[in-house]
């Protein structure tokens, strides 16, 4: 049929009277397999708009070949009959070849008359935002959350155990019931477990109580030395000891649990050559039994420490390796009872002001004397376990290849009710709620939502990090946000969050749209934020946050938040983490808090998959960068004034990079304000620029095996701007670790990382004009 039409058109006009226009529409699965073909001759305006079709009238005028005038009527009649014969044959061929084909489908080898007009993607219309908010609040019910909490509560579900696998299968079954596409991710990881010989702590030659808890990834050895009390084991605590001329070398350091991770406490002590570390829960911080044991890990990193920077799909294919974050000294937890026995007998100097605020039954917190010898014996064994991450996906209707991930830790040491059961239950209920909104209420998310259940989270986000390492190249390009549900409830009188600055504005707006679980007449923002919401709510994202590897290793904007207590620490990593204890800790508001937490996660997620443009505010990073640059500039000038730093070290290029980012972010914000949000292709281009900001703040100049957390603003290592500030302090003080050449190298690489991020944010290379 098409050939016949083309032939006739050429005979009479030399050109076809119409052309094919393909209008791409997406099916319910999010692909472009169906195409709508529209043949039209009244599209000349569109052609003219693209600068084509200037001789349109000439093409449309009848054209009579001169040869026809030279022949007789009989010849003309034969000629017309021949044309009709060709037309009938062409029609029959077209009819027979297309009678079993859907009229709306066009085969990929179908001939095209002319150049296909540029296709403009069409928007998928979904519910209004107010409707989505109401539906989420209506469908995410306390009754369903309560049912899930009971269903996923487990007494034993340690990573790689049969209990862990049973929960994984149960979650997988739920996802399938909701109609989601599911899959699993399998890894072989190495973890520590107590050995046949128990870990022991001896004080002055005598065994101190029973030691049931342990710290995974501690050095397996026996160490001894004089006892030294070091408060919480923070860097500032050890600096205070140095100011008192107390040498940490060879000492067994006693520190309280809390304020920072176990791994950071041990790393701080090891950096000063301590021989071992003991960590205990002080009654001032914890309301637990005297003989309750603590569990945790001391790997200064995340993931399997024996496959640093690469996935643990199979250890046998890699040469022996281990993370630089593994401690070289033994570390062990002790109970309140054991700590009391040791601290009550310590001699030596009185501890500094503020260090004796604990509630151990001792007369005074002493620092310890030379005769207070402690022996720490760690006999943990390293074993390999197979773990499974479980996934379910709701595919988007427009940009299915762009997705947000909501994740929750599934395993726990002990009951782990607040650690993992609450997060897992909310994960399943959010999946149920959103799939229900799609099936029954007409919600069509533009982008995809992945629900992830992680294993081996107790050992430092092992399952999540191994997944990131295994699929880093694709995740960097397609995953635009991560939301953690871990430890989302551990109290009721405070609300804290850690997030990428890109998500600050979205979180603040969400808090204003969700009712407080304490007072329904107030919003979360009114209840917990106060006049300065960032100061009241936001806190630094560190190793203890499960979203940390997503943010600082993969460059994916991430967020985690929690309802917590402002007075006491919740006993994570103990056998007291049960539903009864959490109820007491939340004043019997666990279900109300869970529903509120679900609404926060749900609204943030829906906002990110509903709007044409991603709600990620890249302008927020301007103030973060400016703050660091200001600190560095002040310290550089101070060091140059004192003669510690040569005048050749200039701030010009770092200031220039800061200005470049500021201008690029402001320019893109202006583009967004003036954009046509119905232009889906334009929105996609803008979204691609926005979602790469975080990834472009990862330093490309450091090794993943040596510095896993490459983010120069939120990560850790010598490549960060915080490290530059610290290095300038060392230079100013004339310390041994000060190295001017190394500082200049760090400054140059950090500068170009910021400049590179600004260049990528500015747009395409042909839009830039770097004047010579």
Automatic annotation (TrEMBL):
Belongs to the peptidase M28 family. M28B subfamily. Residues 651-761 form the Transferrin receptor-like dimerisation domain. The chain crosses the membrane at residues 76-96. It is found in: Cell membrane; Melanosome. The keyword Zinc-finger does not apply. One of its GO terms (cellular component) is melanosome. It is a single-pass type II membrane protein. Residues 219-285 form the PA domain. This is Transferrin receptor protein 1. Its main location: membrane. PANTHER family: N-ACETYLATED-ALPHA-LINKED ACIDIC DIPEPTIDASE (PTHR10404), TRANSFERRIN RECEPTOR PROTEIN 1 (PTHR10404:SF26). It holds the Pfam family TFR_dimer. Keywords: Cell membrane, Disulfide bond, Endocytosis, Glycoprotein, Lipoprotein, Membrane, Palmitate, Receptor, Signal-anchor, Transmembrane, Transmembrane helix. InterPro entries: PA_dom_sf (IPR046450), PA_domain (IPR003137), Peptidase_M28 (IPR007484), Peptidase_M28B (IPR039373), TFR-like_dimer_dom (IPR007365), TFR-like_dimer_dom_sf (IPR036757). Residues 389-582 form the Peptidase M28 domain. Cellular uptake of iron occurs via receptor-mediated endocytosis of ligand-occupied transferrin receptor into specialized endosomes. Endosomal acidification leads to iron release. The apotransferrin-receptor complex is then recycled to the cell surface with a return to neutral pH and the concomitant loss of affinity of apotransferrin for its receptor. Transferrin receptor is necessary for development of erythrocytes and the nervous system. Acts as a lipid sensor that regulates mitochondrial fusion by regulating activation of the JNK pathway. It comes from Carassius auratus. Residues 46-66 are annotated as: Disordered. GO terms for biological process: intracellular iron ion homeostasis; receptor internalization; transferrin transport. One of its GO terms (molecular function) is transferrin receptor activity.
């Amino acid at each position: 049929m098409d050939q016949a039409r083309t032939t006739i058109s050429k005979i009479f006009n030399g050109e076809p009277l119409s052309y094919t226009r393909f209008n791409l529409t997406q099916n319910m699965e999010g692909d472009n397999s169906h195409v709508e073909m529209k043949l039209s001759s009244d599209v000349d305006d569109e052609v003219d708009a693209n600068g084509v079709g200037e001789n349109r009238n000439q093409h449309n005028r009848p054209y009579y070949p001169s040869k026809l005038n030279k022949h007789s009527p009989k010849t003309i009649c034969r000629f017309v009959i021949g044309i009709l014969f060709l037309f009938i044959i062409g029609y029959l061929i077209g009819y027979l070849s297309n009678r079993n084909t859907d009229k709306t489908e066009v085969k990929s080898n179908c001939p095209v008359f002319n150049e296909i007009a540029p296709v403009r993607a069409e928007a998928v219309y979904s519910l209004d935002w107010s409707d989505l908010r109401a539906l989420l609040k209506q469908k995410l019910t306390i009754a369903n959350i309560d049912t899930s909490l009971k269903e996923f509560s487990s007494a034993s579900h340690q990573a790689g155990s049969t209990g862990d696998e049973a929960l994984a299968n149960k979650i997988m079954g739920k996802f399938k019931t909701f109609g989601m596409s599911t899959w699993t991710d399998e890894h072989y990881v190495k973890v520590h477990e107590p050995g046949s010989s128990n870990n022991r702590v001896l004080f002055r030659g005598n065994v101190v109580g029973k030691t049931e808890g342990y710290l995974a990834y501690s050095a397996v050895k026996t160490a001894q030395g004089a006892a030294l009390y070091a408060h919480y084991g923070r860097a500032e605590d050890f600096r205070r000891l140095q100011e008192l001329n107390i040498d940490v070398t060879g000492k067994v350091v006693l520190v309280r649990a809390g304020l920072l991770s176990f791994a950071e406490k041990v790393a701080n002590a090891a950096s000063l050559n301590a021989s071992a570390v003991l960590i205990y829960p002080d009654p001032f911080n914890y309301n637990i039994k005297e003989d309750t044991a603590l569990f945790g890990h001391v790997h200064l990193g995340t993931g399997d420490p024996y496959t640093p920077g690469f996935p643990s799909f199979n250890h046998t294919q890699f040469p022996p390796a281990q993370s630089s974050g593994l401690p070289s000294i033994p570390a062990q937890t002790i109970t309140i009872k054991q700590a009391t026995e040791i601290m009550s007998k310590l001699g030596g100097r009185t501890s500094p002001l503020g260090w004796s605020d604990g509630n151990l039954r001792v007369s005074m917190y002493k620092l310890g004397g030379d005769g207070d010898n402690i022996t720490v014996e760690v006999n943990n064994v390293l074993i390999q376990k197979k773990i499974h991450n479980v996934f379910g996906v709701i595919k988007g209707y427009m940009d299915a290849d762009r997705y947000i991930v909501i994740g929750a830790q599934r395993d726990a040491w002990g009951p782990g009710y607040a650690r993992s059961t609450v997060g897992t239950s909310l994960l399943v209920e959010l999946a149920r709620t959103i799939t229900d909104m799609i099936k029954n209420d007409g919600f069509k998310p533009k982008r995809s939502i992945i629900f992830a259940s992680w294993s081996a989270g107790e050992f430092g986000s092992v399952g999540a990090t191994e997944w990131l390492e295994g699929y880093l190249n694709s995740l960097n390009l397609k995953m635009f946000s991560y939301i953690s549900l871990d430890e989302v409830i551990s109290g009721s009188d405070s609300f804290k969050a850690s997030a990428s600055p890109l998500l600050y504005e979205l979180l603040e707006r969400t808090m204003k749209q969700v009712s407080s679980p304490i007072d329904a007449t107030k919003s979360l923002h009114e209840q917990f934020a106060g006049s300065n919401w960032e100061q009241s709510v936001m806190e630094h994202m560190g190793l203890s946050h499960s979203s940390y590897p997503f943010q600082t290793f993969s460059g994916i904007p991430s967020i985690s938040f929690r309802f917590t207590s402002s007075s006491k620490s919740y006993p994570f990593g103990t056998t007291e983490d049960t539903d009864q204890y959490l109820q007491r800790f939340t004043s019997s508001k666990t279900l109300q808090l869970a529903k509120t937490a679900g609404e926060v996660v749900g609204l943030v997620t829906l906002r990110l998959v509903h709007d044409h443009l991603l709600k990620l505010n890249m302008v927020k990073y301007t103030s973060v960068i400016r703050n660091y640059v200001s600190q560095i500039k002040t310290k550089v000038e101070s060091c140059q004034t004192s003669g510690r730093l040569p005048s050749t070290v200039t701030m010009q290029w770092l200031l220039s990079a800061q200005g470049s980012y500021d201008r690029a972010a402001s320019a893109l914000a202006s583009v967004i304000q003036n954009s046509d949000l119905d232009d889906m292709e334009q929105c996609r281009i803008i979204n691609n620029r926005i979602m790469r900001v975080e990834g472009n703040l990862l330093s490309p100049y450091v090794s993943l095996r040596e510095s896993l957390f490459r983010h120069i603003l939120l990560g850790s290592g010598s490549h960060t701007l915080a490290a530059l500030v610290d290095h300038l302090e060392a230079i100013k003080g004339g310390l041994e670790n000060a190295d001017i050449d190394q500082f200049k190298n760090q400054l140059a690489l950090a500068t170009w990382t910021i400049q590179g991020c600004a260049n990528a944010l500015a747009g395409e290379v042909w839009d830039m004009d770097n004047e010579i």
